[in-house]
Amino acid sequence: MSTPDDRLESRLRHLAAEADPVPESVVSDAKALFALRDLDAELAQLVADSLVDEPAVLTRALISDVRMLSFAHDDVTIELDIDTDPVTGRISLRGIVAGGTGELVLVRTGERVPIPLVDGQFALSLAVGGPIRLELREDSGRRITTSWITV
Amino acid sequence: MADTVLDGPVAPLLAAAAAGDPSAWDALVDRFSGLLWATARSHRLGHSDASDVVQTTWLRLLENLGRIQDPERLGGWLATVARRECLLVLRRGDREPPVPADEMLERIPDQRGPLDLALLEAERDAALWACFDQLSDPCRRLLRVLMADPPPAYADVADALDMPIGSIGPTRARCLGKLRTLALQSGALAPDDSAANGTVATGSGEA
Predict the structure, then answer these.
(1) Using CA atoms, how far apart are residues B43 and B21, in angstroms rounded to an integer?
(2) Residue A16: helix, strand or coil by DSSP?
């Protein structure tokens, strides 16, 4: 038996379905992601994020708004600094790959951009929008990808 | 069939998706997108930030498909990821401004039909939504998540908002009570709607 609270909640649910529904593109984009599943690559997990690590943010905030991320898998680490320019809407990525060498690729839903790697260091600039990940194709054939991050 | 997708056990879907079945993935997306969207919107994220949060959450699941420890608690796992992503977006502070109070209001479709009854209902809906917006932040957040379609489990709501599960029920009752008071004052709710346990006389006309 439904209570008045249940009925009110259910009316709110109908209202939300009218006024603030899940956009269809959000659902279809999520379904399309399955094709991006990469079973052969090994995952470099996010092990540090200055946005999450608050004391570090407080210290860094005095210097800049750069977000610093670290990914690790086995002996390979990828350090990534992200600097967003709110005026131009562009993002500067800068980082270091240590413990492994090979080709680095920026993966975004729908595109792959090779990133020159010089002495383990890289830098590139891209437009704001959508999650990204980095993929390292080692000379051995092993592929390591970072987890997805939203920039 | 849709019911199984929305209500059935999650573990088999998760296992099938992990084994590469795209239809199982689609079913998971259909089942939990409402919860994730409501979680993002309850944090007052704008459309594009909320979309990013939902997409990042699904990507996080995608890369961890074979590693979910407690498949039946997938909703809570997803809600937790979404909440953390929301907090990151809010902390970055350089994003879209939070959703203004009346943005959602404007989106209520104009349902003016030939029937006065429909008109009355649309006006009441708009008024109810306006009342919802006058609630305190904690109430608005909780109710927005509870409004997800399909209705989320309390355990998932608790994860979406980082609240103890035991406080969901009592807080919901308090918040709905406040909303009812506001709604009665503004005419968004007919007195009949507020009848406790439906025991109040219903003789007074419109239902």
Answers:
(1) 32
(2) helix
| CA nearest to B144, candidates B111, B185, B98 | B98
pLDDT in tens, A50-107: 877 655 445 544 455 788 999 999 999 999 999 888 778 788 999 999 999 999 999 9
Structural domains of chain B sorted by starting position, each given as residue range(s) with its CATH number in brackets: 7-93 (1.10.1740.10), 104-197 (1.10.10.10)
* C-alpha distances in Å from residue B21, one per residue of B1, B13, B67, B74: 17, 9, 16, 17
CB contact under 8 A, B147 and A33: no
What 3-state class would DSSP assign to A41? coil
Mapping DSSP onto H, E and C, the string for chain B reads CHHHHHHCCCHHHHHHHHCCCHHHHHHHHHHHHHHHHHHHHHCCCCHHHHHHHHHHHHHHHHHCHHHCCCHHHHHHHHHHHHHHHHHHHHHHCCCCCCCCCCHHHHHCCCCCCCCHHHHHHHHHHHHHHHHHHHCCHHHHHHHHHHCCCCCCCHHHHHHHHCCCHHHHHHHHHHHHHHHHHHHHHHCCCCHHHHCHHHCCCCCCCCC
Decide if B37 and A12 are in contact by the 8 Å CB cutoff. no
Contacts of B84 in chain A (CB under 8 A): 52
Distance from CA of B72 to the nearest CA of A (A): 20
User: Which candidate from A7, A19, A109 shows the least CB-CB separation from B108?
Assistant: A19
The C-alpha of A102 sits at a distance from chain B's nearest C-alpha, in angstroms, of: 22
Residues in chain B with CB shorter than 8 Å from the CB of A150 are: 52-53, 55-56, 85, 88-89
| ipTM given for this complex | 0.81
Residue A22 near residue B25 (C-beta atoms within 8 A): no
Q: What residues are paired with A125 via a beta bridge?
A: A92
Q: Are strands A42-49 and A143-146 parallel, antiparallel or unpaired?
A: parallel
pTM for this model (two decimals): 0.81
Amino acid identity of A54? E
CA A139 from centroid of its chain's CA atoms: 25
The CA-atom distances, in angstroms, between A110 and each of A132, B4, B64, B122 are 10, 32, 20, 41
Give the residue from B72, B79, B2 showing the smallest Cα distance to B34: B79
